[in-house]
């Protein structure tokens, strides 16, 4: 930002190099570079002299022999598997699902805001939820019965509103891993996946983006490999692929 008179002439045509302060001519006989600067002007003149020693553009001279060859091959994750004939949803069906899902998210979000801002706070019964680190506990809570006396909990709004966002994301990861392991989406598991997607906040963090993409890929693999699928099972698989791709903007995974 500081320049002497001679440098000013060379750079006056370049607006990006226009000096902020003019320091005048520099007399080398007046500067003792062996001594520390005695004033602000003296310091600036030394800066100008040092800058003159460098070219406007500097290119690093790198010896390729000193560069290490990467030892790990990173392969990009594959996209969704193409749907078999007659199982791929129409674009109209996909658009309808996105609209319905968006409307539901908007309704639930407004309801939650009203509860939080209401003068009369919503008071519900205490709900006992598994710990955020209890993977088996959550899978049992959502999908399994250990005995006839155990209850499988549906993903009601009362439960959803008791779950903070870190818990929503963690449980979603547990259930997506379950889909990948089981190779199927049973009815109650599908209910929970859908409900968690409804309350999942945007924008997605990288972990959640990866999780949703894994869900869509797993659904596409199940759809492609399963030889006997009921109509409601096909609908669930297509629905999750559609929502991940078209609502959560992972368009490379979308069915055409």
Automatic annotation (TrEMBL):
The keyword Acyltransferase does not apply. The keyword Cytoplasm applies. Signal peptide: none annotated. InterPro entries: GEMIN2 (IPR017364), Gemin2/Brr1 (IPR035426). GO terms for cellular component: SMN complex; spliceosomal complex. It is found in: Cytoplasm. Keywords: Cytoplasm, mRNA processing, mRNA splicing. It holds the Pfam family SIP1. GO terms for biological process: spliceosomal complex assembly; spliceosomal snRNP assembly. Belongs to the gemin-2 family. This is Gem-associated protein 2. It comes from Odynerus spinipes.
């Amino acid at each position: 930002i500081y320049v002497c008179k001679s440098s000013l002439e060379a750079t006056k045509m370049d607006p990006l190099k226009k000096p902020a302060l003019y320091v005048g001519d520099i007399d080398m006989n007046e500067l003792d570079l062996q001594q520390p600067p005695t004033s602000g002007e003296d310091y600036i003149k030394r800066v100008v002299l040092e800058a003159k020693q460098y070219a406007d553009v500097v290119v690093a001279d790198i010896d390729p022999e000193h560069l290490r060859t990467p030892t790990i091959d990173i392969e990009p994750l594959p996209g969704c598997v193409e749907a078999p004939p007659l199982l791929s949803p129409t674009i109209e069906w996909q658009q309808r699902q996105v609209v319905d899902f968006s409307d539901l998210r908007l309704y639930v979000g407004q309801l939650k805001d009203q509860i939080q801002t209401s003068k009369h706070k919503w008071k519900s019964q205490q709900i006992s939820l598994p710990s955020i680190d209890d993977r088996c506990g959550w899978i049992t809570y959502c999908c399994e019965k250990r005995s006839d006396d155990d209850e499988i909990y549906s993903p009601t709004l009362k439960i959803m509103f008791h779950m903070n966002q870190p818990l929503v994301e963690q449980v979603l990861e547990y259930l997506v891993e379950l889909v990948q392991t089981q190779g199927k989406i049973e009815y109650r598991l599908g209910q929970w996946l859908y409900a968690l997607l409804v309350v999942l906040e945007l924008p997605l963090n990288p972990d959640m983006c990866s999780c949703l993409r894994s869900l869509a890929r797993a659904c596409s693999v199940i759809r492609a490999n399963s030889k006997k699928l009921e109509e409601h099972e096909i609908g669930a698989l297509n629905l999750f692929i559609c929502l991940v791709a078209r609502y959560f903007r992972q368009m490379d995974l979308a069915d055409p």
